[in-house]
Task: inverse folding
């Protein structure tokens, strides 16, 4: 979720620049996006990436590549996660007059030309939550219903989930209906964008109740799948609606956003060679800075000033560049108070911790976590999950070594992480656990998706 980065005063400038650049390019047509199945059963997801590009993700391999527009419904790609050249693949989308692609032709530079057929049926719709109209996309599997379903619970981003979210493509390709909606204030949804977990959880509950009333959906077979920030929101939503059958959580954490900011800073400083004793001092400064932000820049200034004074000559301060507290050390109070409130996550409950909710819930839950997650550090989350599991709670932990946020694999290049693709088994394991929790394990996933 990168909550720590929300404290950086230059972060909004980057976002504004990104938004301006995005507005200068034409986004790829929504009608091209979805799940596609090749004749041999392989499934790929095509979803929006950045600017005019699409991203293709492989269900079985975790392989991922950018697709760059090269004509009306033609895209080209190069090997690697984000490279543009040399082109070794051409993808042609075959589009109906209504703008929806029915299949694609896969033309690699080497190897056979293949066709992949579009999977599932899209239903664009709206639903109401607390008087606000939210827009969503219901993806139905092929075959007669009513279908089991999963509501996707998004992370902290302000983009349109109906265009960017990809996990649902793999669910629907394996027999599970998926409901994806744009959070309030994003995409096609009305309302004001917010980080308020209670409000976001009520929106999830409204989505579940909307699904339960749909004739295509089995009202007793609805689960949630939360990603990043959704790790806080999805269990909270389940605690508000007893009809939720299970919760899946991917690359999230239990501890508060304030703890996330502290741990993210601590781990970054550790990577820069700061010793453990000094990290305790870093924690003190970070907590003071976070408290200022959590109070809307109205309180905690004396504690922050005391911490800055106490460690003004500390050797570790030279390693603060790019951390959550860099600007709090660098800039004066008047500037922080002037710029800070408008650049903080709106209504974020900085000290919300989902421990109590998770202790009270008794529904099945599966947590998929990356061992090398920098954005949602899980060293405190893991012991809690293991303890609850050992006590008999129906919580399962699936840990992926070497995986960063988003279940992305990476290589270290000049001290930074360069992403190469997704954990090869993640998508398949997520689908398999969902099918088992829905009682679909007696049939093969390939048979269920035909």
Result:
């Amino acid at each position: 979720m990168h909550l720590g980065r929300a404290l950086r005063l230059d972060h909004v400038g980057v976002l504004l620049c990104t938004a301006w650049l995005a507005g200068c390019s034409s986004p790829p047509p929504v009608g091209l996006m979805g799940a596609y199945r090749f004749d041999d059963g392989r499934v790929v997801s095509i979803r929006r990436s950045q600017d005019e590009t699409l991203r293709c993700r492989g269900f079985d391999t975790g392989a991922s590549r950018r697709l760059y527009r090269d004509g009306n419904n033609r895209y080209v790609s190069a090997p690697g996660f984000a490279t543009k050249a040399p082109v070794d693949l051409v993808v042609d989308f075959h589009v109906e007059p209504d703008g929806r692609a029915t299949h694609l032709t896969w033309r690699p530079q080497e190897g056979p030309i293949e066709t992949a057929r579009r999977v599932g049926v899209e239903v664009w719709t709206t639903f109401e939550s607390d008087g606000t109209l939210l827009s969503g996309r219901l993806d139905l599997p092929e075959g007669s219903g009513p279908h089991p379903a999963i509501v996707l619970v998004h992370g902290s981003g302000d983009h349109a989930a109906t265009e960017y979210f990809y996990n649902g493509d793999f669910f629907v390709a394996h027999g599970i209906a998926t409901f994806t909606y744009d959070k309030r204030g994003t995409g096609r949804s009305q309302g004001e964008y917010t980080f308020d977990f209670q409000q976001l959880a009520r929106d999830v509950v409204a989505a579940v109740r909307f699904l339960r009333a749909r004739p295509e959906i089995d009202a007793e077979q609805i689960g949630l799948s939360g990603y990043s920030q959704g790790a806080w929101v999805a269990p909270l939503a389940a605690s508000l609606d007893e009809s939720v059958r299970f919760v899946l959580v991917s690359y999230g954490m239990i501890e508060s956003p304030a703890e996330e900011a502290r741990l993210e800073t601590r781990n970054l400083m550790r990577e820069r060679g700061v010793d453990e004793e000094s990290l305790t001092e870093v924690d003190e400064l970070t907590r003071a800075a976070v408290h200022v932000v959590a109070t809307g820049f109205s309180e905690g200034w004396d504690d922050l000033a005391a911490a800055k004074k106490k460690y003004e000559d500390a050797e570790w301060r030279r390693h603060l560049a790019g951390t959550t507290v860099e600007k709090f050390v660098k800039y004066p109070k008047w500037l922080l108070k002037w710029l800070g409130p408008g650049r903080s996550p709106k209504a974020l409950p900085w000290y919300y911790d989902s421990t109590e909710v998770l202790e009270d819930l008794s529904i099945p839950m599966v947590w998929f976590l990356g061992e090398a997650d920098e954005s949602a550090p899980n060293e405190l989350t893991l012991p809690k999950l293991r303890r609850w599991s050992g006590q008999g709670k129906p919580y399962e932990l699936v840990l992926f070594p070497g995986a960063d946020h988003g279940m992305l694999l990476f290589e270290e290049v000049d001290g930074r992480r360069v992403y190469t693709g997704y954990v090869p088994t993640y998508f398949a394991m997520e689908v398999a656990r969902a099918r088992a929790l829905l009682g679909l394990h007696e049939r093969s996933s390939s048979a269920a998706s035909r």
Q: What stands out?
A: Confidence is low (pLDDT under 50) at residues 1-24, 443-450.
